[in-house]
Amino acid sequence: MEFDFAAEQPKFLMLMYGLIAFVAVVGGLLLLLDVVPAWFARRREERLVAAVASGAPLPRRRKPREGAIALFFLLPTLLFLTVGLVVPAIRTTLLSFMDKNSSNWVGLDNYAWMFSEDSIVRVLINSLIWVLLVPLVATGFGLIYAVLVDKARFESVAKSLIFLPMAISFVGAAIIWKFVYAYRGDGDQIGLLNQIVVSLGGEPKQWLLESPLNTLLLIVIMIWIQAGFAMVVLSAAIKAIPADIVEAARLDGVSPWQMFWQITMPSIRPAVIVVVVTLSIATLKVFDIVRTATNGNYDTSVIANEMYNQAFRYGEPGQGSALAVFLFVLVIPIVIYQIRNLRQQREG
């Protein structure tokens, strides 16, 4: 199959226009942030030189209006948030109360469909399983690994090995693990998992076709990726524990187990909460892994994947928007909890 550059030219032009627009906007903001403060500093310096030359009293330094300066720096962010988040969120919410043609109001019918359709209830259950297992298991593995390799001889190498999956995209990780779960009916198995099963005398299986096992196997991919993030954050928190507290505990003769539960865990509790909350939000939005590994088939779909299917594949923007709104509602309590937790830490 030959690549026809002429036929694909409009796509390349759109890509080029997008890159030019991105460079122009970001470059303009950076230039503005560099030029404006320098211009004010130069003007003040000129006034000071003029006052010294004329023998006049030096001009008093006026206190900057902090509100105006803060607004100046926040305006680009507020603009992008409004265009990229607030407006789409309002539009999506409105679409969730409309029919598939986005022309007639149907009230809560799309939300009633979401909880009455068996396939969608299966999707919600899958998402619940994901959000229960991934944050807890990934944080647990990251914490155990951080404690075990802390101050070890090859600590940096050991941490690099578990952090490496973080450098891989979700799509890349899903493709790698599809090879691990690969099944071949006849001949030698190319999938690592099936090859291990065969070497132990078992029969190879099509792992990603068996529900609910396939959902758990997809969850393993997410844990494999996110355990490195949990390990890095928790390892930094462990190293931040004051040395005098650790030394005092050792002088008191506490065992390693007591050291972990009575000293380490209370000290890193805020970091553990941050990791669990961050992973919970990331898990609720998971899409790439499911889309790449199974395309949501065989009872493996999750909310984000089904939202895409309904809105863009099945021509049901109302139902897809309802799923998007429901996903947004699920994230809100987690964000509120994290904000309250951060405020309590700051006040404490």
Automatic annotation (TrEMBL):
GO terms for cellular component: plasma membrane. Keywords: Cell membrane, Membrane, Transmembrane, Transmembrane helix, Transport. Residues 124-340 form the ABC transmembrane type-1 domain. PROSITE patterns: ABC_TM1. It is found in: Cell membrane. The chain crosses the membrane at residues 12-40, 68-90, 123-149, 161-183, 216-238, 259-282, 321-339. GO terms for biological process: transmembrane transport. Its main location: membrane. CDD domains: TM_PBP2 (cd06261). InterPro entries: ABC_transporter_permease, MetI-like, MetI-like_sf. The keyword Transmembrane helix applies. It comes from the Bacteria. Pfam families: BPD_transp_1. It is a multi-pass membrane protein. PANTHER family: ABC TRANSPORTER PERMEASE PROTEIN, OSMOPROTECTIVE COMPOUNDS UPTAKE PERMEASE PROTEIN GGTC. Belongs to the binding-protein-dependent transport system permease family. This is Carbohydrate ABC transporter membrane protein 1, CUT1 family.
